[in-house]
Amino acid sequence: SASVCLKVETAVEAVEAAQKPNMPRRGVEILVDAGAFVQDRIADYSRAVAHMAAPDYWEKDTGHVMCVVCSSSLTDSVPDGAEGPDGQRRKHHCRACGKFVCWQCSEARRKVPSHGWLEDVRVCDNCNDKPDPL
Q1: Fewer beta carbons within 10 angstroms: which end of the chain, N or C?
Q2: Which of 114, 82, 37 is nearest to 130 (CA)?
Q3: Helices in the chain by DSSP H: which ranges?
Q4: 61-88: burial string, b at 16+ Cβ within 10 Å, e else
Q5: Are 73 and 64 contacting, i.e. CB atoms less than 8 angstroms apart?
Q6: In the predicted model, is pLDDT for residue 34 greater than 50?
């Protein structure tokens, strides 16, 4: 099989090169796989950066914390979907308002562009009832 050597400098040129009739099918598959890989790494990086430090608008943990929606006592020591011996639930932050919420009151996922969350992220039931954009 003949190899095709292409010099590409931008993603647009790569796509245009892949559309040429002499581009081998395997080359196109490799290009598509590489694009998907890069896109996945960008998403991983975005999530990692977002979680490196708690955003300033997030409510601070002052010890005894309660869910802003249902007033359940919250903790870090129980897994999602479970309750502690005293009825505590897993503690989370709503990405829209920054308040503490339990897992049960924050099952909704939405984009929150006002705080830089461009992918669907955890929002509390109160914020989920608000119209877009958050």
Answers
A1: N
A2: 114
A3: 11-18, 25-52, 125-128
A4: eeeebbbbbeebbbbeebeeeebeeeeb
A5: yes
A6: yes
| Rounded (10°) CA dihedral 73, 95, 76, 62 | -70
Paired tokens of 98: 């920054």
pLDDT digits 0-9 by tens, 86-113: 889 989 999 999 999 999 999 999 999 9
Q: What spatial distance separates the first Cα and last Cα of the chain, rounded to whole Å? A: 54
Contact 68, 97 (CB under 8 A): yes
Q: Model pTM greater than 0.70?
A: no
Distance CA 110, CA 96 (A): 9
